[in-house]
Amino acid sequence: MTLALPGPRLLLAFTSALLPLAALAASPAPEQAPTIPAEVYAPIAMEAGTWDAEITFYEKDKPSGTATGVQVNTLLLNGHWITNDFTIPANGKFPAYQGHGVWGYDPVAKTYVDTWVDTNDGAVRTDYGYWQPDEKIMTWSSKQNDGKGHFVDYRIVEEFKGDTRIFTFTQLGIVTPNPHPLVRIVFTRRAEDKAAG
C-alpha cells in the first residue's frame, strides 16, 4: 500500500489553519477583571426610580426662585451604571430645562464618575465622587470652563434619606474657595417606585 503525501496546496492550508491556534497558545492569559465589592454599587441602586423634584435656585447666596421637575433614573442590567434624565418645565421666570447624565463606579479610575450634559451647559461636565457609606452621602467634585476663560470648581453633595434625596450644587469662589449655593433640590421618590430603594 502506497502512502500518499498531501500536496503543497493542502499542506499550506493545514499549516495556515494551525497558525492562529499556535499564536493563541503563545499569548499571555488575559488579566482577570478586578473584583469590585457589591457594596460599591449600593449608592447607584439607591438612586433608581422616578423622583419628583422641589427646586430652589440661588443668586448671590440667596434664594432667587423655585421650580418643580421630574428625574427618571434607570439602572443598567448589571446594576453598575445608572442613567439620569431630568426635566423642569418652563415657568414664568425660567425656560424649560433638560439634563442627561450617566454615572457609576469606574474600575479603572477607582472612583465614581458622572458625566452630565444639559440645556444650560456649553460643555460636558465630568464629576468625580466620594461615597460615605455610614452617612449615605455622595460628594462630587468637578471643574468646568465658564466660557470666559476661567475654570470654575463645583461641589455637589447628595444626601440619601430613603425615599428622599437632598441635592446641593455649589460653586467654589475663584479667588477664595468659599462655597456659593447655586441650586438645592429635594427629590421625593414616587410611591410606585419605593420598592426600588
Automatic annotation (TrEMBL):
Record keywords: Signal
A Pfam family per the record: DUF1579
InterPro entries the record matches: DUF1579
Annotated signal peptide: 1-25
Protein name: DUF1579 domain-containing protein
Organism: Dokdonella immobilis
Lineage: Bacteria, Pseudomonadati, Pseudomonadota, Gammaproteobacteria, Lysobacterales
